[in-house]
Amino acid sequence: MDSKLDMFEDVNTSPSLEGDMSIPGKRTTTTTSQNGVPEYNTLDEPIRETVLRDMRAVGIKFYHVLYPKEKSSLLRDWDLWGPLVLCTFMATILQGSSSADSMSDNGPEFAQVFVIVWIGAAIVTLNSKLLGGNISFFQSVCVLGYCLTPVALSLIVCRVILLSKQTRFLFFLRFVTTTLGFAWATYASFIFLGQSQPPHRKPLAVYPIFLFFFIISWLVLSHN
User: What is the CB neighbour count within 10 angstroms for residue 146?
Assistant: First the structure.
């Protein structure tokens, strides 16, 4: 009997109260890492602040594509929200009408635009990786998706031009607008992705990017 009592003498029956306690309504804490990148603690952050911060980050990426000077932020803080919004917007505008009265509308279907954009971006990324690029898969898809911004802007201009009766001059104006969007998208993507490729293989990496934006720009121009 004594041996049984000795077995339970050293057992601590009091529950452990160690750990951190979260405080409701606590504001977001921000720390800075060694490389100067802010690190956010968003566990106790209000949803409104999270959404607004993410929207600001997406807007900054759009700005970097239209003014491709700073290269690191788009690659470091990658996301797929911007590419998803652009792809959905362009697929909605470019989709052809299914009514019998709109036989002249030869636009692609919604799913076709989605397949062209995402499968095309995946193929371009795979080619970049096979050439020895030092960039991750989702970083490359993020850059290609955000670089659709100039093409999407040219699509908006072309849709406005199509509201009036078409002439040769207006078609030429649509052609110039689409060409500018295509050239700017290709240039911006090369600025962000060119440094990730070996110097002697950059032409092999640029050609699929050129072809990717050319096909999407052709859809924009041919949609009437």
Answer: 27
